[in-house]
Design a protein that fits this description.
The chain is α+β, with helices and mostly antiparallel strands. It is 26% helix and 39% strand. The chain contains three helices and seven strands, in the order βααββββββα. A seven-stranded antiparallel sheet has the order 1-7-6-5-4-3-2. α1 packs across α2.
């Protein structure tokens, strides 16, 4: 029996390098992740931290598991506001899908079956915003998850 996971696949008109930058640059994540800034030194074992732009508070944390630029990025993920839930894992896989198109697969696993839908609801606007920003230079005007 397979373990529960949230899996999202999208195709983005961009380059693998630009998508990689969007996933690993704090200035970039703030644009599409509703004000959250990511910080890490990006070596396996290094901490990954997300900060809220409103008050610079730590919102999420984890550790780098895989850093294979610009193909695979994985880190543990812990929502800092939920203390009794263990860290999960997020894996981004980037593949070329044409001359100027990449396939992005996001797998959020190490979660329980009752968490899958919540993560799907949370990731959907973030990934839609990422795609829109990379393709148009604009972000969506939607409510935060």
């Amino acid at each position: 029996m397979s373990k529960p996971a949230m899996i999202h696949v999208t195709y983005i008109e961009t380059t693998p390098e630009k998508l990689w930058e969007a996933l690993t640059s704090g200035a970039f994540t703030q644009l599409y992740w509703f004000g959250r800034r990511i910080e890490s030194a990006w070596s396996v074992g290094d901490p990954v931290r997300f900060y809220d732009s409103a008050d610079d508070s730590l919102t999420d944390s984890g550790d780098v598991l895989v850093y294979d630029e610009p193909k695979t990025l994985a880190y543990t993920f812990k929502n800092e506001s939920v203390k009794d839930v263990p860290a999960s894992r997020v894996t981004f896989t980037i593949e070329s899908a044409g001359p100027s198109v990449v396939k992005l697969q996001v797998v959020h696993d190490e979660i329980t079956a009752d968490q899958v839908e919540g993560w799907r609801i949370g990731w959907s606007p973030i990934l839609a915003n990422l795609k829109t920003y990379l393709e148009t230079g604009k972000v969506l005007e939607i409510s935060t998850p």
